[in-house]
Amino acid sequence: MKKRKKSVDFSLGKKEKVKVNPKAAGRRIINTVLIVFAAIVLGYGLITFCVQTVYMTGSSMESVISDGDELILNKLAYKASKIRRYDIVAIKKIGSDDYYDIKRVVGLPGDSISVVAGRLVINGKHTNDDLPFSYINTPGVLDETIKLGDEEYFVIGDNTSNSEDSRYINYGNVQKSEIKGKISYRISPKEKRGKID
């Protein structure tokens, strides 16, 4: 006699109710909100006090920086060190909104500056010929020697034939408080990505 196989019961039982702990759920929601809030505050802090991306507008810094280049502005650069001659900086002139001018620092506080025969003269010495602005067609205010005051800087665009900068009265010398940081790195275009000197 053949043994009968036991039948298997495939009937579905009632779903067990999952108990939700309201305190634990509340804690999870609060933790999530705190993490999102912390990320927003951290992001805002980084942009406000550390670094941010800026874009070059115009051709005043050709051929070192081109119109539309995406750049990193290091806002901490001058918290620990001094602004140095030939640094490329981002300037926010008093009264401007979100627009940054990008120029090269050529004159430091106390310097005497002029242009003689198309060449920049700083403290009685001609500048190096290997600079992008080795010859200046339009001296502007530098057709006479000017002396910079305390916390005043003189800036020039590398493309001196097409740059509104400290050579012109309507732009003038730049105050230290107007220099918002150093341009340290180019993000795009990709083929030119890298450190900027």
Descriptive account of the structure:
- The chain is an alpha+beta fold.
- Helices cover 17% and strands 27% of the residues.
- It contains two helices and twelve strands; from the N terminus they run H-E-E-H-E-E-E-E-E-E-E-E-E-E.
- Strands 1, 2, 3, 4, 9, 10, 11 and 12 form an eight-stranded antiparallel sheet that branches. The chain has a four-stranded antiparallel sheet with strand order 7-6-5-8, with no helix packed on it.
- Strand 6 (119-122) and strand 7 (125-126) form a beta hairpin.
- The longest helix is centred in the N-terminal third of the chain and has 29 residues, at 22-50.
- The radius of gyration is 30 Å and the shape is elongated.
Approximate shape: elongated
What is Rg?
30 Å
The N- to C-terminal Cα distance equals: 96 Å
Strand tally is 12
- Rounded average pLDDT: 83
Number of discrete helical segments: 2
Looking at how many chains there are and whether they match, the oligomeric state comes to single chain
Topology pattern, helix = H, strand = E: HEEHEEEEEEEEEE
Determine the fraction of residues in helical runs and give it as a percent range.
10-25%
Largest sheet: 8 strands, antiparallel
Q: Low-confidence stretches at least 5 residues in length (pLDDT < 50)?
A: none
Task: Determine the strand fraction and express it as a percent band.
Answer: 25-35%
Structural class based on helices, strands and sheet pairing? alpha+beta
